[in-house]
Amino acid sequence: MDADSGAPLASFEAKWTAFAPEFGLALKFVSQRERVARSAFACLVFELEHAAYATRDAEPAAIKLQWWAEELTRAREGAARHPLTQVLAAHPAFTALAPTRWYAVIRGALAQRDPEPAADSAALLETYAALYRPLAAIETELFPGIEAQTLTRVLTLSRALRETASLAESLHAGRLPLPLDTLARHRLARGDLMSTSAPQVALLHEWLAWLAAEFRSVRTAQAGVLGAAAAVANRVRARAGSRAADPLAELNAAYTRVPFAAVWAAWRAGRRARD
After folding, report:
1. Domains along the chain?
2. pLDDT at 4 over 50
3. Full-model pTM
């Protein structure tokens, strides 16, 4: 693996928060007794996402995911090797998770590698849910107070936005991060998305406005501290992109910023968890 089993947890947190800076601030509002385990789980999700979406070649991605499947089984049996699973193995609820729960996660990650184009937005989000639904179910068992369906919605919408932001990379990897019915409305084919044009910009405006509205409908009170921060930060980013002359440039720039509204949402979620 590319992770050194002796590396400190901080190195994984640094990668995770560089990718989504709102999480570094949101973590400060997680209760002290849960903070390390919450961080370790979020970093584990990030590592699985990287194998599912960011590893270019299929064979290395499959090898990484198989290694994680084996590691998660070892961790449940008290033989964890990775710093993240070593932290999680100390969580009382971790060993109660059946191995089949993690196998469902790995199957969902593998399903992201070469998905069929989605007919509509619901089908696209369902593709992402193959990974995020089992992950959300596990997270809600480890950290009570989060509603699994709400968290799944946040995670799938967040992936839809991220895949849109990295449109060229997604297309090169064989994924179409926009639904076919949206392309049809704008009379665009898959290949047309690679170059900027008035129809492409109009399509992105529509799609990002839809994502912003979906994020707005999320019940952040049920998404947990990190979920609430993600929902609000990504709503702000999607809305900004939907109004920009260059939607992709604005969206990618927005990922380097932490909207104040996301910090406020995380604070409120942390306060609710303590009450």
Report:
1. 10-274 (1.10.600.10)
2. no
3. 0.94
